[in-house]
Amino acid sequence: MTEQGKITDINGEEIILSCSSLSGGCKSCSGNSFCSTNGKVFSALNGENINLKSGDTVEIYLPPGQTIFAGFMVLIFPLLSFILFFAAGSWLFNGSEGLGILSGLAGLAAGFYITYKYNQISKQKNTPQITKLISSL
Hints:
This protein is α+β, with helices and mostly antiparallel strands. The protein has helices at residues 64-92, 97-121, 123-126; strands spanning 2-11, 14-19, 41-45, 57-61, 129-135. It has a 5-stranded antiparallel sheet with strand order 3-2-1-4-5, with no helix packed on it. Strand 1 and strand 2 (14-19) form a beta hairpin. The relative contact order is 0.20.
């Protein structure tokens, strides 16, 4: 999936981008008028060593598989951890619902922590890549 962004800052190989409602998928989205994504900043890598400067509009590539996996890790993995820890806690504490819920909350926290650590370790691999310069100031 390709999107467009405007460069706001350059820190070595890391490029800070701002997305706009004019980018790829946003043009056709019906929620464009109230979307909170407009103006958000994110980072991308300049793996192609394109000569870039602040204010340039660039195209970035977000691999669909990695995007889906990232959504799974942030949303589904902690929920599955909650369910697993809840069931294990209820079984361990002889059906005590209160202790099962506490175990589930511990599982939820563990799921978010594992996701956070995974994202730190694989940041370089999962960061969007700038593929081309669209317009320069």
